Amino acid sequence: MTFGSYLRSAWPTAAILCVASLLTCMVLEVSGTGAPLLSLVACVLIGSSVLLLVVDYLRKRAFACELDSLADQQGHALWASELIDRPDFIEGQLAYDALCAVSKAANDEVAGYRRQTNDYREYVETWVHEAKSPLAAAHLMIENIEDELSAVGEDPIDEEVLFSRVRALDEELDRMEGYVEQALFYARSEAVERDYLIREYNLKELVSAALRANSRMLISARVAPFRRNLDYQVFTDEKWMLFIFGQIIQNSVKYARDEGASIEFSACLRDEGLATERVELSIRDNGCGVSAADLPRVFEKGFTGAAGRSGKRSTGIGLYLVKRLCDKMGVGIDADSVAGEGFTVILSFSTNRFHYFE
């Protein structure tokens, strides 16, 4: 900042000082003050005015020069408040405080986007690693089927073995399809509000549709589904809710017991007649469950718990994505479990439709 540019911005102050000095000299002259004293007073007034402007310029010059240099270096814009000192004049202090607030907001937003980018990159890396497994298994099964068919002329074909391999191949393709669907919903979860439509649905019909979509997986794992007291109307989006149900079902299948496995959907109305009235849907299985120490972390990204570390194929993404989508849609979610006895996910649907138009 040059002194000339400063004077252009401070011209009201300079004009007032000039007018005040001129009026003072005129009053002294009218009152009969002698020329020597009048000249001395004029010099003092003019000198004081110039000195005042110079001192004010020097106080503000350092701060202005620092701002100018930061404006030319765009890479340091986010850290501007850390690279300059807080000035001692009121205008600069107000500008500095505003700059700090803007910098903090910008840094928080940039950090949020970086965190989302890192999370998505980590998820893609995990997804690629997990997707290799069903693809490799599918290729191996196709080779075995080809070997069976090529040997038809030599030995009679065992249709039961062939059908079992085809079914196993179908299961691996279902796994692959599930991974692809999960990746699509993970990508869309960044902006759920642009891809969902809240309507009134019958809870029993939603649960039945989710069970049908995952029936082959349930049958293969010998998991018996049960529906109890589901005749409630809830406000939600069908597509996203079916995906959420599917992830919970798949998680239950993954940790199902070998014999007598089951999954139960049951609902009840809570706080009837109050502003907090809601329909609670409990999805309960009788699998291995999680320990009390692991329970608070089941919705964390990448968390698999003791069961996931003991040989089960788990990425720790399913329940994390379920929690993320529920939060974005305003659906309450909680979990309960007893190790060795089962795991329960509780979804809460508000019956106040205005909740979805906030």
Q: What is this structure's SSE topology?
A:
Layout: H1 3-9, H2 11-30, H3 35-72, H4 80-83, H5 90-150, H6 159-188, E1 199-202, H7 203-213, H8 215-221, E2 223-228, E3 233-236, H9 238-254, E4 261-270, E5 278-285, H10 305-308, H11 318-329, E6 332-338, E7 342-350
Parallel strand pairs: 2-4
Antiparallel strand pairs: 1-3, 4-5, 5-7, 6-7
EC number: 2.7.13.3
Catalytic activity: ATP + protein L-histidine = ADP + protein N-phospho-L-histidine
Protein name: Sensor-like histidine kinase SenX3
Can you walk through the features of this model?
A hairpin with a 3-residue loop joins strand 6 and strand 7. The model has no long low-confidence stretch (mean pLDDT 77). The chain contains eleven helices and seven strands. The protein has three domains: 3-105, no CATH class; 120-188, Orthogonal Bundle (Helix Hairpins), CATH 1.10.287; 196-357, Histidine kinase-like ATPase, C-terminal domain (Heat Shock Protein 90), CATH 3.30.565. The chain has 358 residues and is α+β, with helices and mostly antiparallel strands.
List the defining traits of the structure above:
alpha+beta, Helix Hairpins, Heat Shock Protein 90, five-stranded mixed sheet, two-stranded antiparallel ribbon, 7 strands, Sensor-like histidine kinase SenX3, HisK_dim/P_sf
